[in-house]
User: Fold tRNA wybutosine-synthesizing protein 4 from Corythaeola cristata.
Amino acid sequence: FHRGYYIRARAVDHCVQDFLLKTQSHPRTQILSLGAGFDSLYFRLKDMGLLHHTVVYEVDFPNVACQKATLIKRTRELSALVGDTGEEGLGVIAFSGEDYKLLGVDLSELSELERALEEAGLDNEIPILFIAEVVLTYMENSRSDALIQWAAERFSRACFLLYEQMHPEDPFGRVMQQHFGQLNSALRSLAQYPDCEAQQRRFFEKGWTECSVMDMNEFFTCSTPEDEQQRVQALEPFDEFEEWHLKCSHYFVLAASKGMEPSWTPLLSDLTDPHHDGAVRMAGSIPAAVCAKHSEMPGLRRYGHRSVLIKPNVILTTGGFGEEDGQHCRMRNFHVLIKHAGYWKAGCVKKENPDKRWDERLYHTVSCLSKSLALVVGGRTSPSSAGLGMLWLKFPESCNAPDPGDITVEPVSLQPAAEAAALRWRHSATEVTFRGEKYLFLYGGRSAVEPVLGDWYFLHTQELSCTVIPVEGPVPESRHSHSACSWKGGVLIAGGLGAAEQPLGSVFFLRNLEHGFQWQTVDTHPPLIPRYSHTAHVHDGKLLLVGGVWLRSSAVPGVTVVDLMTGLCLDYTINEHLEWPLMLHNHSSVFLPNEKELLLIGGGGNCFSFGTHLNPEPVSLSLSNILTSH
Assistant:
């Protein structure tokens, strides 16, 4: 929430101050804020001494304007800044100061608006900046279009600043639309103007000669100074990167102008990433289906959890944040999915010793090391707390029970010497082989001290102690929320979020050699679109990357197949004929090679102020077509 509202205010301030700077040689300028509500922009600009020759006009419904006028009069500091001229109450003018006019008018009634502005002293010939901050989208398109066209036709030197939502049809967009629908405030412009390109065309068609637009990820990256980015990133403990990037990819800022000399261009992008917001070429689609005969299981509505195949057809899911006993919390119970007679069945696992407390962790790893043991490494409770250590999970060697409730799992605490290596989350733990011995390769992640880690440890699976093994080659840049898969005795690392909170598109192979390991870069073509919070599997020389978050707002990640022999990289969309949006970040996935079936478990999260969406049921993807076609 803090970052989401910060970036909105930052974008508006950036464009407004750029307008004031570019027009400071003019004797008079104007700002007209449409649907201003209780915005404090005028008072901030006035307090900063930026309104030397600018009059600010604000328009909103009469009852809103009246309430705001009363508030200004009652607040000594605000009254002192504005300098009351006593003209309020005359017609539609709710409040009038020397350089501030507050008008009560319905924006959709253009003739009334024009009459009110004329009465308040607005001048058609001097430079003007229109501000519409999440306003036009609530109006009928014909009326908002008419307003945009009127502004271009009526004013000889004009600028327009627009900030609102986009991308209504992807999973996050559907949750967003549903939220506003429930509030009885439908976002009307989204169907006709669903993206940046459509909004840009709209302004050109309505008479504006220059128009630039960017989503808020691009604005934060390109139009926010680096030191300011770092200041914001360090303000408070933060671990909601997926939600932040998704929110920013569903809002845009647009700056249009006409008749301005020099031209007004506050949104200049220096993004050199060829992937950013270009169209994603999809090689095909993969059908998604809810697991057959699976009754909805609240215990699997979660994110930040881990799922692991502990035996053939038995998947154990632990940790994460989700829904338990009718409320959202860090998950205490373990859950299993069991395939019996061709169908998946879900259930809660019995704890062998109910008094032994599970640490309710998120973003940990679970590695199955034998027929009866899995090792949990790291994870966190709060992002301001230290990472958690290691834990054994014991379960019976034989498990033929068709009923999930018959399976028992016992958490066993341990305090080995390798504890320091485990105090991290959003990391990876992958089995590798060196000189006939098995190790877990712990890599990357983050901790309460380091926002991103690039170190690694070889954890001996028998002794649970860290072993020094030589590693040569170019060291990958630090990352968390990446994927890691065992392959040929080594490990494949793909994507992740880097030091500047930017998704990475690199793929590395930690190759097993006689004397140690060697980092090698895996070249992909076309280059892999940078992403993080995805899952990954290797099958028959192909690396499968599933879901995740990228900064391409034109599409959401589906399944990407990388041929490890040729480097060919193909993206597939997931064709979800489901009754609910499938959010594929912070999920877990299990690949069943014999069936060429991919099970997606959980996923989702907080969708800004629109509510929390957790995928309600496990979903099955059949990959047989795309794996045989390669």
Notes: The radius of gyration is 28 Å.
